[in-house]
Write a structure and sequence with these properties.
The complex is a heterodimer of chains A (413) and B (210). Chain A is an alpha/beta fold and 413 residues long. Chain A is built from twelve helices and 15 strands. In chain B, 15% of the residues are buried. Chain B has three domains: 53 residues, no CATH class; 66 residues; 71 residues, no CATH class. By secondary structure, chain B is mostly helical. Chain B is built from seven helices and no strands. Classes of the chains: A alpha/beta (413), B mainly alpha (210). At the A-B interface, α3, α5, α6, α7 and α8 of A face α2, α4 and α7 of B.
Amino acid sequence: MVRFFGADRTARVHPLTVVLILGVLTLSGGDAFAQGDPSAEGGPPLPIACAVSAEDAPEDGGGSILVTWELTDPGGREDEILGFDVLRYAPGEEPASIGEVPATDTEYTDSNTEDGTSYQYVVRTRTPFGHTDSEPSPAAVSSAQWFAKSRLGVLVIAALFCGAVLFYIQRAKKGGELFIREIPGLEAVDDAVGRATEMGRPVLFVPGIELVTEVGTLAALTILGHVAKRVARHGTPLHVPCADPIVMATAQEIVKASYAEVGRPDEYDPSRVAYLTYDQFGYTAGVNGMMLRDRPEAVFLIGTFYAESLILAETGHSIGAIQIAGTKETSQLPFFVAACDYTLIGEELFAASSYLSREPVMLGSLKGQDLTKLWIVYVIILAVVVGTVGYMVSADGGSALTKIFEFVKSWFN
Amino acid sequence: MKRTVPLIITFLTGTFLVVSFFVPHSPFGELEQRLLIWFAIVAGFTMLLGVDSLIRAHVRKVARAQGGWGHSAALLVGLVATVVVGILGRVQYGSPFHIQSPFMFIYTYTIVPLQATMFALLAFFIASASYRAFRARNWVATLLLVSAVIVMLGRIPIGAAISPFFPWAQEWIMEFPQLAAKRGIQIGAALGAVSMSLRIILGIERSYLS
């Protein structure tokens, strides 16, 4: 079926012209109404959007419809498409443009629909010679979903993981024996603080440059509490430069509480837990300046770091400080390993608080975490074997083994 | 009470956010975005805390004429001047971010070059750190050195000119041993992060509370 859009465009056309155009379109097998000649300058016809489909956007809170389309045979001329316009109409409405899509895309999400209302879409292909409208899509209605089915795998893994952690926490509460391997970087915390005390020089704790919403920053703040208690016991000055005011406020409270806990609340100096700047390299310059002026004996670089990691770590190395670093950013770990005395790698950063507190309940959560990791290792090994054998048996992926492999793989996507 | 209320708020917020990850339907689906807006508002106000901390620290340094007080004075002058210039830009051009405003002049010709300078220092720090890291002290360090040389040669044109082995070997090192180790660390870190989040939500981890 051919639809004509734009009343002003059709109103001035003579009826005979319409009949002629329709005749030409019918004879040429055209299924769309073109403005301009898409195959101008000869050669194969320009590709246009066709087979437009519209369906409720999956796994959303409603109010969205996903529109997709294909291209007619490009014939090597797809580069000549300027882009697409998506037009929408509800029953009784005129089609109106709701968005533009680059020539490289073939989908558009209409995020402004009313749930329960039926919509149809037309995709207009824009070329240097004019534009061509596709046939309208089938009607689609948006609605909200109660469960994100694609996240079922995550839910199962999360449930197993939480179950394992809670099991070991309960076991720890009952007094079960839990072995936790030694983490050298955390064993060195006491030595670093002790050395700074002996040398009469301060301790510098850098909690990264991210916001408090970042889990790496939270891990850094939990370690700060333990470091602050040790520092407070020894009466060593502790400097904590912060790149975020909320991190600063939280760090101030943590350090203050640590001083109070060891019975030295009067020795807490809030000016030592200070805000520097949000700016990445401004912060780096500020911390470097503190290192070179105050000459701390122990430097903790713990949290989330990016390009500034090596600048900080090398400056700390140049002043001869003992350095303990920790981050979950895999791209920054090599820099810390190269420039620091100890590095907490990935999970060790998150285990630090439990490790340092030595509370059985906290250690129980580590044990549960390790058990889950073991399960994941088993699943990966099993999946690799199943997948390899499956593709050896049937290279086209049609065997039951490859289907099992692809199913397991989809859980980790 | 001082600890119980924050723990309850943490538990409820954490639980709702976990539920919202699996349930897109209103009101859960939009919860994360809503909380992020709340966070942005709170973070905006806490900037005042940060500026207050900054000004206090440097005013004290200048008032007591502590070592390096000149730097603190420069910082305070810069801070005030930037604010004044920003307000003037707003009055004169309608926005401090107007291309001709003096605020943008400060940003373009002072902040950006300073940032670039700090970032450029990284090249020298990488050289000094690499020199230490690549010393062949034992077989592991030697392995690192050999791998690094292959990867470096494989990624520059001269490597391919010497032998096609270098581009192939660097790709193999990056695609297999490097990626395998990286993914192992990432899986461990992700589980560690989830475990810590669970401890915080359940109130087992309390060291972030004063």
